[in-house]
Amino acid sequence: MMNLILQGLNTDLPTARRIAALAGARQLTPIAPHAYRCEEVEVSPALKAQIEDACSAAEIDCTLLAADRSLNEFKLLAMDMDSTLITIECIDEIADMQGLKPQVAAITEAAMRGDIEFRESLARRVALLQGLDASALQRVYDERLSLSPGAQAMLAAVKAAGLKTLLVSGGFTFFTDRVKARLGLDYSHASVLEIAGGKLTGKVLGTVVDADEKKRKLEQVCGELGIAPSQAIVMGDGANDLKMMGVAGMSVAFRAKPVVRAQADVALNFVGLDGILRLFN
After folding, report:
1. How many domains does the chain fold into?
2. 82 is a catalytic site residue
3. Which position among 61, 82, 92, 274 bears the catalytic label?
């Protein structure tokens, strides 16, 4: 039997009752402020589409999942960084220091939609940064980098449940290293910007962390922990997250591109990252 979890920033009881009735739920249970569990639902694909449309119109995130899912069945939380754990795309903000944000952001957007292969897009974007003073990286971290809503509450609960944490990013170690230390994460993995003479060279050193590399790192960490990828929750927003999401036990699309939302087990478009906590009994 399945449960349907409804949550939004302003979800009210009458709206929840209306959607529960549409889903044919046997019971509606409040589980948190503005969050409800519609219990014992059986939903056909056509009805699921109707429910999703009704929820989207009401700015409610809806998740259909087995009634017995528990956070304790997972051992690892793997997260993308840019536009997932944090609110910005770091490379776009670095480019803003060069007056090139619109050009770089357009390439970033196309890559996250899956329109451009990630390696090509990263090379093109990083090349535009050539000659920028490396101090711009610290400025972006200090002045523009913010955690996504619900990040700290989510991480606190996940750690309390005994899960390890992995930050894996197509962005750069300058930022992942600092975010890892700031939040007390267990693992991080990202690309390395080349710096020479205090300036960005417009190149990446070593391995580019693309979709294949993200998946490889996830599987490596699972191996080190002695767990299967099916014991991992993976969160992301862009097309380069899909391969690691595809091997996870639960995939979460956070304010993601349509191609990612369509393939993820969970899509959080309105609530914060801590929305995943309300999915479990």
Report:
1. 2
2. yes
3. 82
